[in-house]
């Protein structure tokens, strides 16, 4: 904030020459970039400098706070015990997978198919057999016909309509509409 005030004073007061004005501008840009880095790290930056036991030679920083080395996968500074680092990939902010398993915020989803998992939106995902909301299987949902509706909290398949993963009793998927204000 101080460099911005300095430039405003410089421009309004005409106290300094052009070289100092340019120098002040460079200082503002550098300080702004440093501030953005500290306050709003990009999705490629993780807290891997604080992870105990990480192998820094093989460390790879992934998106959304994930990091892996040749031995383990981490989310921020928490180690995934069962994740396989060589095949681990981040699918979106909440869903990840390796060659054997699918995870929701680091928790293994029992029965999810790693080869066919597809994150949707608002916590939904599906694979060739099942549909999930926030990592929990939606009972009797049909993954082949499951689609998101215009209001992204709602979804449907050939049998039912769902709101945030819960079946809406009595709702007909062929006639159900969501009003958007």
Considering DSSP H and I runs of 4 or more, what fraction of the residues is helical? Answer: 10-25%
Tell me, briefly, the overall form. elongated
Strand content: 15-25%
- Average pLDDT, rounded to a whole number, is 81
Query: Total helix count?
Result: 2
Element-by-element helix/strand order? HHEEEEEEEEEEEEEEEE
Instruction: Tell me the number of strands.
Output: 16
C-alpha termini separation: 40 Å
Describe the structure in your own words:
By secondary structure, this protein is an alpha+beta fold. It has three domains: 2-39; 41-88, no CATH class; 91-181, no CATH class. The protein is built from two helices and 16 strands. Strands 1-2-3-4 form a four-stranded antiparallel beta sheet, with no helix packed on it. A four-stranded antiparallel beta sheet has the order 5-6-7-8, with no helix packed on it. A hairpin with a 4-residue loop joins strand 10 and strand 11. Helix 1 runs antiparallel to helix 2 (18-39). The longest helix is centred in the first third of the chain and has 22 residues, at 18-39. Residues 1-11 and 36-48 have low confidence and may be disordered.
């Amino acid at each position: 904030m101080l460099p911005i005030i300095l430039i405003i004073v410089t421009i309004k007061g005409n106290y300094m020459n052009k070289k100092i004005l340019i120098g002040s501008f460079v200082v503002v840009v550098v300080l702004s970039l440093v501030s953005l880095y500290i306050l709003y790290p990009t999705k490629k930056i993780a807290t891997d400098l604080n992870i105990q036991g990480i192998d820094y030679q093989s460390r790879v920083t992934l998106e959304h706070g994930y990091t892996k080395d040749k031995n383990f996968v981490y989310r921020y500074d928490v180690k995934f015990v069962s994740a396989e680092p060589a095949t681990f990939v981040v699918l979106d902010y909440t869903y990840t997978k390796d060659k054997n398993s699918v995870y929701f915020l680091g928790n293994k989803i029992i029965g999810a198919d790693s080869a066919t998992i597809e994150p949707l939106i608002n916590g939904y995902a599906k694979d060739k057999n099942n549909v999930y909301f926030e990592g929990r299987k939606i009972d009797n949902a049909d993954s082949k016909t499951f689609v998101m509706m215009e209001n992204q909290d709602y979804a449907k398949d050939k049998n039912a309509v769902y709101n945030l993963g819960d079946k809406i009793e009595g709702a007909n998927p062929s006639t159900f509409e969501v009003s958007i204000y």
